Predict the structure of Phosphate-binding protein.
Amino acid sequence: MKKNSLWFSGIKTVQTAVATTGILLLTAVGTAQAQKLTGAGSTFDNPIFTKWFSEYSAAHPGVEINYQSIGSGGGIKQVTAGLVDFGATDGPMTDEQLAASKIKLIHIPAVLGAVVPIFNVPGVNDLKFAPDVLADIFLGKISNWDDARIAKDNPGAKLPNLSISVVHRAEGSGTTFIFSDYLSKVSKDWENGPGRGSALNWPKGIGGKGNDGVAGYIRQLPGSIGYVELIYALQNHIAYGEVRNAAGHWVKASIAGVTAAAASVKQMPADYRVSITNAPGADAYPISSFSWLLIPTQGQDAAKRKVLKDFLNWMLIGGEKEVSSLYYAPLPDSLIAREHQTVDNLK
């Protein structure tokens, strides 16, 4: 009896040890998988990022991705200073910015999107904007909504005798880069004046914080005009205009129009930095752009890097299938295949 008692006691001890070891192993695995990533930058991307980061975290218990939608300029500053694990921008970093960064970075295209001219003109829901007219409105050369040049392209619109109030971004912004990159291509006066960049010396207007800040001003201010990423116009029920493209066709922003603009890129640069504003093609929407994640190639611990690489591959496989629901255009399949190689090569 005593022998059996000792035998059962031994078994119990072994079982307890195994159970304890199992718990420790599970805890260790959970701890290894638990990672918190931080990012900052583009408000252009924030709607799709909110969806992606939430879904990825839900499918990967212990992983948390926190993103600050502070504008592309702020995102570049934070990621180049090593304050966040990744950045996001709608305007590619310049050679000078990349050289000055204390962190070596690569650009990973995330989505394609459109910037649209939004307006609040009482009694008017549809407008067409010729490229030179759009530039001169933001330059302050066209200051009233019943100006003859606007009326010429909109013969059916009842344009009021109302001053134009320009609204632009207050902070460094990739959306501003896209818009000013386009205006620099279609207007010499713009190119030789404010030029292209994420932060400009604006000839006139008031600044709104983020795409949502600009949209908020437009909703509240009759006679105003501004520019935002397409989804912000749709979500806020703000009218946005058609723009005449390089082929001479009037085009309203759409997924198909952005896709057509992206198709103009015949040879993607090795570093993925490319402009597709004012792209050729009958159906191309002219104020289209890629948006990029800025990924460090050094300085991160192995566990954090593993999670970041896994997220990027998840984004390219599953995340891209969801972008159209938020009015972004998906990346071309050929580009996705190439990006997978880039991500896999991250050490």
